[in-house]
Amino acid sequence: MPRPIRATFDLAALEHNLSIARARAGDARVWAVAKANAYGHGLLRARRALDAADGFALLDIDEAVRLRDAGVRKPILLLEGFFAPADLAPIARHSLSVVIHSNEQMAMLESVRPTPPFAVFLKINTGMNRLGISVEQIGASLARLAATGSAAGITLMTHFADADGPEGVTAQLARFESATRGLALPRSLANSAALLRHPQARADWVRPGIMLYGCSPFADETAQALGLMPVMTLTSALIAVRHLAAGERVGYGGTFAADRAMRIGVVACGYADGYPRHAPTGTPILVAGRRTRTVGRVSMDMLTVDLEGIPEAGIGTLVTLWGEGLSCDEVAAAAGTVSYELLCALAARVPQTERA
Ligand SMILES: *Cc1c(COP(=O)(O)O)cnc(C)c1O
């Protein structure tokens, strides 16, 4: 018998979440953002449920080529563009769409002038201060792009820093609009948070990621309230049960001490499976479908749970780390992070199955 841990993927849920994104997008076209191996869900698996998307957005040329080899003829957007001049030949050959965010990339394009031309998304920095040309450079960049003859269509793009937070999109959107006024070019602005909360930012191409995988981009609104369904469910089982006397401690560092006699369970799941090591005592977890809490430190291959009120729990009892019945968002929040990080961190050693 293998270790009892597994990740189960519900592709119908993925399809459902995409339909919610589609409905919110109105007339805009939808990039299904599938970077980081489709947020840990498996790129080619996710693709099968994302047929209704207008294209896929990811980072690596290799991943884009895997999609092309699997028969995907839709647009595929490289969100960070290319990294070296040698990347341009495969980009042109596979007709990938490409973000250009820097003058260095522009210079590479000018030196290679690849054919056939491909679609360019010109990324403009409007306040995120990560990638993007400055608003002052838009005119010059458009002229340079046109002169290369390598751009088959240009879309103007920006990325919001706080679409999920109190600042929203107002300031960046105003900056973008004033800098691009009068340019008759399509636009792409919205991530999941902007798509869900700021309909004025839908523009022509939206870029939802996390919502497709059934998690909420917001700290103050649950996935369930947004109508999203979890796609990845991480389960395992108890492999030991023990009784602690009052005062006895659990795990490395003895960070948790029983304040009275208690029963605890040992779960076959640790940080080497992708469970966050910094999840503190009290992180929610389901045992036999009942909600309880982790106790003590997460170790590499195991973690421990409080079995109070779950007398039926014994060796072999099903444990849900996150997914159906317990949102990954909640576990992430308890661990001081976001669901994105947990989903992407699912370890290669965890066996994966699809829900029938
Ligand atoms: C990851 C990413 C997205 C998707 O963001 P979510 O918050 O997962 O919806 C959109 N646009 C860009 C440029 C990204 O890098």
Low-confidence stretches: none
Q: Which shape, going by the Cα principal axes?
A: elongated
The string of secondary-structure elements, in order, is EHEHHEHEHEHEHEHEHEEEEEEEEEHHE
Task: Give the spatial strand order of the biggest sheet.
Answer: 8-7-6-5-4-3-2-9
Largest sheet: 8 strands, parallel
What compounds are bound to the protein?
pyridoxal-5'-phosphate
Concise summary:
This protein has 356 residues and is an alpha/beta fold. The protein has helices at 11-25, 35-39, 43-49, 61-69, 88-93, 103-112, 138-148, 170-180, 192-197, 328-334, 339-344, and strands spanning 6-9, 29-33, 55-58, 76-78, 97-100, 118-123, 151-157, 187-188, 205-206, 232-244, 249-250, 256-257, 262-267, 284-287, 290-295, 303-306, 318-322, 352-354.
Walk me through what this model shows.
The chain has 356 residues and is an alpha/beta fold. The chain folds into 2 domains: 11-213, Alpha-Beta Barrel (TIM Barrel), CATH 3.20.20; 232-354, Lyase, Ornithine Decarboxylase, Chain A, domain 1, CATH 2.40.37.10. The protein is built from 11 helices and 18 strands. Strands 8-7-6-5-4-3-2-9 form an 8-stranded parallel beta sheet. A hairpin with a 7-residue loop joins β15 and β16 (303-306). α1 (11-25) crosses α3 (43-49) and α6 packs parallel to α7. The longest helix has 15 residues, at 11-25. It is elongated and about 75 Å long. The chain starts with 5 loop residues before the first strand and ends with a strand. Bound molecules: pyridoxal-5'-phosphate (PLP). Pyridoxal-5'-phosphate binds next to α9.
